[in-house]
Design a protein that fits this description.
Strand content: under 5%
Radius of gyration: 21 Å
Number of helices: 3
Shape: extended
Mean pLDDT: 83
């Protein structure tokens, strides 16, 4: 009796070695099902739809950064200043992009 092949439900990519017992401890992320985009969606509607999702995600990420200040972590004044400076610099770039003065370039932050 042949068994049916199981789908790979592990969050770890195929072929990556995982110590025994570890894969079971990694929770699976359940993504929300996407709402179908209406075929007649206007550019304004598309902007609003994308902006709401992206700004919400950015605000959630900022809340995560704020959560770095607490008894579970240690940081220096210089580290905290570098984080604030990086965020302020990015906000300036976004403001200039919205004004049509520049474009956003991807960058990686490091302390």
């Amino acid at each position: 009796m042949a068994s049916s092949p199981k789908a790979n439900l592990s969050p770890v990519p195929s072929g990556v070695p995982v110590p025994s017992g570890v894969a079971a401890a990694i929770p699976m992320v359940q993504r929300k099902k996407r709402t179908p985009v209406p075929a007649d969606e206007t550019k304004d509607q598309k902007f609003k739809r994308l902006a709401e999702g992206r700004v919400s995600a950015a605000l959630h990420a900022l809340d995560g950064i704020a959560g770095l200040i607490g008894p579970a972590y240690e940081s220096t004044v210089e580290q905290r200043r570098r984080i604030i400076d990086a965020l302020n610099e990015r906000m300036t770039v976004i403001e200039k992009t919205f004004a049509g003065e520049t474009t956003v370039k991807k960058r990686v932050f490091q302390l």
